[in-house]
User: What shape does this take?
Amino acid sequence: MEFLRKSRDENIANDLSPASSLCMNMPIPTNELEELVLAGNRRAIARLISRAEAGHSDCRRTLARIYRNAGQAHVIGITGVPGSGKSTLVRSFAHAVRRQGRTVAVVAIDPSSPFSGGAILGDRIRMLELVNDPGVFIRSMATRGALGGLARAALDAVDILDASGFDLILIETVGVGQDEVDIVQAAHSTVVVSAPGLGDDVQAIKAGILEIADIHVVNKADRRDANKTVVDLTQMLSTGVPVVSDNAWVTPVLAVSAQNDDGVTDLQASLDKHRAFLQESGNMSKRIRRIAAYRILKIAEDSVREGLSVEQGNKMKTLLDRVAAREVDPHSAAAELLTSINTNVLG
Assistant: This one.
């Protein structure tokens, strides 16, 4: 791993020679990107993420090998209600990480344009001051209609960034509601960001994203009503609100002003403490298994969904006619449709 990190640092400084395929923006086979990714080449990382996101058929074997080389980074989920300042917090946190000499990658999930399918918020624009830092990598990804607040290829991107040697990987989700909590199935540590002035909204969302937090952050703590939000959250946690976090871990509530870089070092220390807790308590292996289970099921669901879209034109019309005529019930029709795509899924 030390060799990979050294190679990565050299490639960050020099990237590839001007004669290389990447520098000339020429096509390069996906399997040839693997070695470059493991050495930390930024162009190769970006290109492989793009191919994974596009679902290129030649990616599967390369991503399988990348997966075997991943597993060293601390994966941190950042989620919360819209307007809580998640992107500002991520930017401030990345600066704090870099001051410690560690590297950080950010996968920023944005809502999709209903027309192009691309990301419409563009977190990279908000983080322009970080893009020239060789120890920071930022990638915006569109949700592309995925439910749960995560883009479909987000965890493939995490594998790629992990294998390339980044110390911390942040997944910043879109602003989420009560049931869009997939991030807890995808990260080792989950940070839920709130903001002052939520009032009764805190109560309204407590059955959703508040319970998934390993760490609560009240951002914009320079506002006068910030302390009330901190107190409200602390009281809710102390009165037995159900939590997904491990029972032995006491979920902290941190006041942070990301705009002013206040309290961010406390967040950094809490995340390091949480990772140490997971490793020492044995809960890290449980979380890794939880992430694996989530990924297996999501991939299976996506495969079924793709098979359904292929078969829809061929099989669906006949099934619709039969269901509408009440010759067959919807449950039986669904079972027949799934049977018809079974070969495509297994293939």
Summary: Residues 70-281 form a domain with the Rossmann fold fold (CATH 3.40.50.300). Residues 1-19, 113-120 have pLDDT under 50 and may be disordered. The CA atoms of residues 38 and 159 lie 11 Å apart.
